[in-house]
Inverse folding.
């Protein structure tokens, strides 16, 4: 157990500085793009609809690890500009989450009654304004629990960055284990750390979901 | 560093044979894990609705544990920590038999079974109480009612949500490379490191996963059509 407690500081720091920061940055990048793509997925212009749909289908069917390989090893072979492992992992995680956020926001947009869109257009708003001011905010509110759940999954997936060499909490555990040879204490510790964080977060999301549902149910005419 | 693309590297010596082996390993890994996940997940899903509190608690713990810990951490935990509780001879035997593959299948099966269990539970809740009570009132025991009435109905209702979990198994199996299973991702990295033909290797790896995912989706849509419960809303029928 000493192996775990002596290194708890280093592990927490890696969790905070790499995993949490990468997840937060990836969400900040992916959510706006996901909203744009969601609108694109509902577009009637084939030049918008088909590329966005293809992107979502390809990215959702590939393992995150493959996308990390593209971002870290293969991408620089094409562009000639190497990235640090952290930046590559961040790009890959964001690109991956864009696909998931797109589908969640699209489902949210489709759950808003068409009458709202027509009412918005009737007041003289343009189609873009209706989306931006009327339907999209409601879609995001309705889908907040799903978006948050997906963000918790992204937080867990951020450990995959260790495979391309990002010194995240998982990589740090491996390094400490190589030195201390205490796999039981170290991996159990890491598992408990993640479990507590993700369990509490998902409980909070479930609470939020129940509240949102009451509000939607109460607000309906 | 190669300056030109050379796709033939993927089927010429020495990589050609390795590619076939690696793809077969990915298929074996994913299909085995999926089979176990379906069995464990169905049982665990039924257990969550059990009349016994202890059974419900164990089933809930199973879902929460495997859902809230990253798959990579679970994999290392099972690969490194599980053998440590065994006596030395058994431990050696385990590694001699190929614990890399064994631990990967075990982890993937348990991880996926937690998700399957959640879908099963959602399906159970979708079957109305009237149906369950009717089954019980005909004189069936709780277990018989589950086995002959609820389960067949639930399994048909949850086919669409199982499709996405089935696809996810193939994607998740890529992490098995970290404990030394030579599957598609492992080989992608190996070809890349050895030959620097990253573009060819990575294209191949991605193509393998995409074909797996899309074949599964195609297959499952046939099953979805066959097992559709008459009278329920179906994808593509509007509403």
């Amino acid at each position: 157990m000493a192996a775990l407690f002596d290194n708890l500081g280093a592990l927490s720091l890696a969790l905070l500085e790499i995993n949490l920061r990468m997840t937060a940055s990836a969400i900040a990048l992916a959510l706006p793009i996901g909203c744009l793509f969601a609108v694109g997925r509902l577009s009637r212009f084939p030049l918008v609809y088909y590329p966005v749909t293809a992107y979502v289908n390809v990215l959702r069917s590939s393992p995150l690890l493959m996308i990390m390989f593209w971002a870290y090893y293969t991408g620089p072979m094409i562009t000639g500009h190497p990235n640090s492992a952290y930046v590559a992992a961040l790009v890959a995680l964001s690109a991956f989450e864009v696909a998931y956020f797109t589908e969640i926001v699209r489902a949210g947009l489709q759950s808003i009654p068409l009458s709202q869109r027509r009412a918005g257009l009737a007041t003289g708003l343009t189609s873009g304004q209706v989306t931006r001011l009327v339907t999209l905010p409601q879609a995001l509110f309705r889908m907040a629990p799903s978006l948050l759940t997906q963000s918790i999954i992204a937080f867990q997936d951020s450990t995959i960055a260790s495979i391309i060499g990002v010194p995240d909490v998982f990589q740090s555990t491996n390094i400490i284990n190589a030195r201390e040879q205490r796999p039981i204490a170290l991996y159990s510790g890491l598992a408990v750390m993640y479990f507590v964080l993700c369990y509490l977060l998902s409980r909070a999301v479930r609470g939020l979901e129940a509240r949102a549902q009451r509000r939607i149910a109460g607000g309906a005419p | 560093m190669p300056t030109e693309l050379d796709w033939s590297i993927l089927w010429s010596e020495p990589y050609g044979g390795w590619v076939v082996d690696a793809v077969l390993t990915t298929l074996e890994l994913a299909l085995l894990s999926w089979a176990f996940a379906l069995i464990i997940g169905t049982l665990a899903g039924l257990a969550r609705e059990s009349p016994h509190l202890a059974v419900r608690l164990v089933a809930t713990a199973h879902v929460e544990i495997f859902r809230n810990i990253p798959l990579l951490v679970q994999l290392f935990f099972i690969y490194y920590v599980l053998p440590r509780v065994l006596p030395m001879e058994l431990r050696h035997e385990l590694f001699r038999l190929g614990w890399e593959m064994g631990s990967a299948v075990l982890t993937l099966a348990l991880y996926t079974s937690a998700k399957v269990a959640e879908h099963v539970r959602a399906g159970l809740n979708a079957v109305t109480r009237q149906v369950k009570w009717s089954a019980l009132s005909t004189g069936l025991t709780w277990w018989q009612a589950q086995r002959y009435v609820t389960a067949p109905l639930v399994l048909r209702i949850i086919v669409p949500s199982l499709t996405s979990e089935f696809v996810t198994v193939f994607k998740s199996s890529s992490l098995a490379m970290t404990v030394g299973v030579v599957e598609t991702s492992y080989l992608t990295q190996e070809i890349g490191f050895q030959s620097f033909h990253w573009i060819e290797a990575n294209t191949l790896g991605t193509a393998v996963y995409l074909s797996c995912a899309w074949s599964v989706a195609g297959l499952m849509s046939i099953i979805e059509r066959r097992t559709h419960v008459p009278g329920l809303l179906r994808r593509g029928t509007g509403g």
Notes: Chain A has one domain: 2-219. The longest helix of chain A spans residues 183-219. The radius of gyration of chain A is 21 Å.
